[in-house]
Amino acid sequence: MSSYQVDSARMKKDLATLVAINTENPPGHEREAAECLEGWLLTAGFDLSFSEYAPGRTNVIAVLNNGPGPCFAFNTHLDTVPAGSGWASDPFTLTERDGRLYGRGACDAKGPLVAMVEALRLLAANRQQWSGTLMGVFTADEEVASEGAKFYVRDNPPAIDFAVIGEPTSNATFSAHKGSLRPRVRVKGVTAHSGTPELGINAIYQSARLLGLIEEAHHQQVRCRCHDLVGNASLTVTRIHGGHADNVVPDSCELLLDRRMVPGEDEEVVKAELQQLLD
């Protein structure tokens, strides 16, 4: 039996290393973080491969084949949201304060990533106690469009029987998740000089009418669809942009919608409902 023990000091050091690597998305650039993981997991005995859907946008796939049995995977992501402002310390320097660790990604999701790497080390060191395939699937671009995950599944990877997903959940375990659709809606009008707006059709005004319909659909149709584990479905507007000059009636206005689906909803049905709303 292996005498391997979880090394908390090493985990903290690993987290500091990853936090210091800026993977804010956009633009992402996860390659350096991927190379960091490569060194750690090769040492633990895993076969490592990278896949890139664009230069520098790197997925890490670690595999340990250990005889017949199910495939178990750890999965989280390498990118973070932008650091923004208002930090009490450098967001790219891991800082310990009042028993907590602070840094961009310390919670979402470089902290879970470091915990998963340590779990992979532990399981690899104790492989005589289990049989099957162990994987680490660490993807790029989770925070924006999940292009890394899409690229991974496009290559027909091996079937995974069980998976643990690393996201901040306040140490609660969840076995379900909402889905997401983010359609862009372009509302058309007719341009005119702003001094004679009656000669045109203002696309922003047209969009304002649509905003009311979207809000009504959320309250009356969408949010009543609930799931015991993830709560209610939702529909909202997250971005709006229209116009290109101060003295021109805009002939176009673009909205970005966010439709969160709960387990049991059908994506194609939801798309049809959105199309009907827009029609």
Topology:
Elements: H1 8-19, H2 31-43, E1 47-54, E2 57-66, E3 71-77, E4 95-97, E5 100-102, H3 110-125, E6 132-139, H4 147-154, E7 162-165, E8 179-181, E9 184-188, E10 192-193, H5 203-222, E11 226-227, E12 231-232, E13 234-242, E14 248-249, E15 252-261, H6 267-278
Parallel strand pairs: 3-6, 3-7
Antiparallel strand pairs: 1-2, 2-6, 4-5, 8-15, 9-15, 10-14, 11-12, 13-15
**Rg from C-alpha positions?**
23 Å
Strand order of the largest sheet: 1-2-6-3-7
- The dominant shape is elongated
Estimate the strand proportion.
25-35%
Secondary-structure element order, N to C = HHEEEEEHEHEEEEHEEEEEH
| CATH H-tier superfamily of the largest domain | Zn peptidases
* Model regions low in confidence, pLDDT < 50 over at least 5 residues: none
CATH architecture identity of the largest domain: 3-Layer(aba) Sandwich
Explain what this protein looks like in three dimensions:
The protein has helices spanning 8-19, 31-43, 110-125, 147-154, 203-222, 267-278, and strands spanning 47-54, 57-66, 71-77, 95-97, 100-102, 132-139, 162-165, 179-181, 184-188, 192-193, 226-227, 231-232, 234-242, 248-249, 252-261. It has 279 residues and is α+β, with helices and mostly antiparallel strands. The chain has two domains: 8-165, Zn peptidases (Aminopeptidase); 179-278, Alpha-Beta Plaits (2-Layer Sandwich), CATH 3.30.70. A five-stranded mixed β-sheet has the order 1-2-6-3-7, with helices on both faces. A hairpin with a 3-residue loop joins strand 11 (226-227) and strand 12. The termini are far apart.
